[in-house]
Design brief:
The protein has six helices and five strands. The protein is of the alpha/beta class. It folds into two domains: 121 residues, 3-Layer(aba) Sandwich (Rossmann fold), CATH 3.40.50.450; 37 residues, no CATH class. It has a five-stranded parallel beta sheet, sandwiched between helices. The model has no long low-confidence stretch (mean pLDDT 93). One of its GO terms (biological process) is deoxyribonucleoside monophosphate catabolic process. This is Nucleoside 2-deoxyribosyltransferase. Keywords: Transferase. GO terms for molecular function: 5-hydroxymethyl-dUMP N-hydrolase activity; transferase activity.
Length: 167
């Protein structure tokens, strides 16, 4: 089964080494990996089209949903996960630390006051509402994609034990 790995890992200084390790993990768990680094495109439009083609070839999209350049996941990864879901692909995600959006925003802002219960309205330091459903990220990602705590390997193990339903 082909699996596309979405996430900001392509921006790591050791991206090539990470990709080799990720490919080995996928194969170990019985999946054929497809990564954004699998093509040689260098223009924005070329990368965009090549990544969409890889997602179309995959049966599953696994997304690294760790916070990236702020308290939310990488926006490109969010797009890829949404695109895969719209195509009816199986989608799932992983985070290093399983915490709610409210907890993550509060930590990013350095807030120490008690956090409200799930469902109680809360706001960030700019007065903007924070989704408080107890989900580890925005509901548009967390509802269609089961999210596991840990890294890629934890997510792959979860897929083998409990395959996710298609989008």
């Amino acid at each position: 089964m082909k699996i596309y790995l979405a996430g900001p890992d392509v921006f790591r200084p050791d991206a090539a080494e990470w990709a080799e390790s990720a490919r080995a993990l996928c194969r170990h768990h019985g999946f054929e990996p497809l990564l954004p680094l699998d093509h040689a495109e260098t223009t924005a439009a070329g990368i965009f089209q090549a990544n969409l083609e890889l997602i179309r070839k995959a049966q599953i999209v696994v997304a690294n949903l760790d916070p990236f350049r702020g308290p939310e996941p990488d926006p490109g990864t969010a797009f890829e996960l949404g695109y895969a879901h719209a195509l009816g692909k199986k989608v799932c995600g992983y985070v290093s630390r399983l915490e709610s959006s409210v907890q993550r925003v509060a930590r990013a802002e350095g807030r120490e006051e008690p956090l409200p219960d799930v469902g109680v309205a809360t706001h960030d330091r700019n007065g903007l509402a924070i989704e408080n459903f107890g989900l580890p990220c925005n509901l548009m990602l967390a509802v269609p994609a089961p999210i596991v705590e840990g890294g890629l390997e934890a997510c792959l193990q979860s897929l083998r034990q409990r395959p996710v339903a298609p989008g």
